[in-house]
Amino acid sequence: MATNLALDDRLVNKALRLGGHRTKKATVTEALQEYIQRRQQLGILELFGKIDFHPDFDRDYKRARHRR
After folding, report:
1. What is residue 2's DSSP assignment?
2. Which of 19, 34, 44, 56 is the most buried (most CB within 10 A)?
3. CA distance 40 to 31
4. Over the stretch 22-66, which tens digit does the pLDDT of each residue have?
5. Nearest alpha-carbon partner for 28 in 56, 49, 4
6. pLDDT of the residue at 31
């Protein structure tokens, strides 16, 4: 998908150098991938304390593993 964007040249050039990419496209693509990954990780952190923990899980898991 072709898109024209007005990007801050200083930021793009700094990212280009830091990332070691040859093209602005590769730099922006990786930046978007990292942005998405980071946002997904933050979404997982929001679950902290909301998922019930069963204290016997570890023991039950090990016992179930030996039943095979």
Report:
1. -
2. 19
3. 14
4. 999 999 999 999 999 999 998 888 888 787 777 766 666 666 776
5. 4
6. 96
- CA 34 to chain CA centroid, nearest Å: 6
Sign of CA dihedral 27, 29, 30, 35: positive
DSSP per position, 19-50: HT-SSHHHHHHHHHHHHHHHHHHHHHHTTTTT
Would you kindly state where each structural domain of the chain is located, as residue ranges?
Answer: 9-66
- The residue type of 33 is Q
**Of 9, 47, 41, 15, the residue nearest 28 (C-alpha):** 15
Alpha carbon distance 50, 57 (integer Å): 17
